[in-house]
Write a structure and sequence with these properties.
This protein is globular. With about 350 residues, the protein is mainly beta. About 50% of the residues are buried. The strands form six sheets. A four-stranded antiparallel beta sheet has the order 3-4-5-6, with no helix packed on it. A four-stranded antiparallel beta sheet has the order 10-11-12-13, with no helix packed on it. β10 and β11 form a beta hairpin. Helices cover about 5% and strands about 45% of the residues.
Length: about 350
């Protein structure tokens, strides 16, 4: 989930951008309604659906259309894109133009939102009162596009002795109980990383009870960390999707675990379910959503020839998810979008 660390030469950056824009014959054209850009295809719908840097994406319903939110960039604390069809996207406005009083600008990462009643609650990662670590804040809006406002006096979750807390993800079970999942930022300080869960109040504004650690890095492919949890319920099975390994490499991938309860215990698949291909490197930090009866996964990935580069950065991709009891199948990252999109 971390921002890109390395840059490449100007020549390599230009070449990488050109290659990404040419994938699937996509172009980025001016959008007269927003002042941003809109992606179009000269043939069939193609991945990436947004060819510029848009890390840690989530797609939310917005009336008859969609809004995507992501990590800071392009002069915004929380980037947004809007679409009518999930294929053509236009740049939107900053979903959180003002930060909470307890944080400072520079890092607003991995936002995820959920609708509670008539309000949208967004959980996000940002600098803690101690800027050496990051913690989780909470902001509220009347619209999924924002503006979200955080009027709190401090973070919602901040495990200072565990490196901080990041990658918050809300989930509401079929019985109406709400939960928040997150990761302690242990790899930043040389300790284990854990994905934890704690119950939320019915309005999503407060944590209740005690947190519970669910899983940590313990499989060879996961490297030094697990992060970016996202839970989906299907036929009484709770599916926990997560990312692991180095986000700035082709080894980053999406894992999967299942449980009969949202608080576990979760059993991991031995191997990742979404990995690098010849067109997308290091796919990860996924979120699921439903469209026309299908379950889709949105995630970011690097252009294979530009891993770690600011240009084009981590672009936004779509795959389809199918369920068979406790098993899942995800279409690999491909230039062609899943059929029907």
């Amino acid at each position: 989930m971390r921002g890109a660390r390395a840059t490449v030469s100007a020549v390599s950056m230009v070449a990488a951008l050109a290659a990404t824009l040419l994938t699937g014959c996509q172009t980025a054209d001016p959008d007269p309604t927003t002042g941003g850009t809109v992606t179009t295809s000269t043939s069939a719908a193609t991945n990436p659906v947004w060819p510029s840097n848009f890390p840690d994406p989530q797609i939310l319903p917005d009336g008859d259309g969609w809004v995507a939110i992501s990590t800071n960039g392009n002069g915004m604390n929380v980037q947004t894109l809007v679409s009518d069809d999930l294929v053509t996207w236009a740049q939107g406005s900053d979903a959180m133009p003002e930060l909470a009083s307890w944080t400072t600008p520079g890092k607003v990462w991995a936002p995820e939102a959920h609708r509670f009643g008539d309000r949208w609650v967004m959980y996000y990662t940002t600098k803690a009162p101690d800027p050496a670590i990051q913690c989780i804040g909470l902001a509220v809006a009347d619209d999924p596009k924002g503006p979200y406002r955080d009027s709190s006096s401090g973070p919602l979750v901040c495990e200072e002795d565990q490196g901080g807390s990041i990658d918050a993800s809300p989930f509401v079970a079929a019985d109406g109980t709400a939960y928040l999942y997150w990761k302690n930022d242990g790899n930043a300080v040389g300790v284990d990383t854990w994905i934890s869960v704690q119950q939320l109040s019915d309005d999503g504004l407060r944590l209740e009870g005690e947190p519970k650690q669910l899983l940590q890095q313990d499989l060879p492919w996961e490297g030094q960390l697990v992060e970016a949890p996202f839970v989906w319920e299907r036929d009484g099975v709770f599916h926990l999707f997560y990312s692991a390994n180095d986000y700035g490499s082709e080894r980053y991938a999406v894992g999967h675990a299942t449980a009969s309860s949202p608080t576990g215990p979760f059993t991991k698949d031995p191997d990742p379910i979404l990995t690098s291909t010849d067109v997308a490197a290091g796919p990860g930090h996924c979120a699921l959503f439903e469209a026309d009866g299908r379950v889709l996964m949105v995630y970011h990935a690097w252009a294979p020839e530009a891993i770690g580069s600011d240009v084009p950065g981590r672009t936004m991709w779509l795959s389809e998810v199918t369920f068979d009891g406790g098993a899942v199948s995800v279409t690999p990252p491909a230039a062609q979008l899943p059929m029907g999109l």
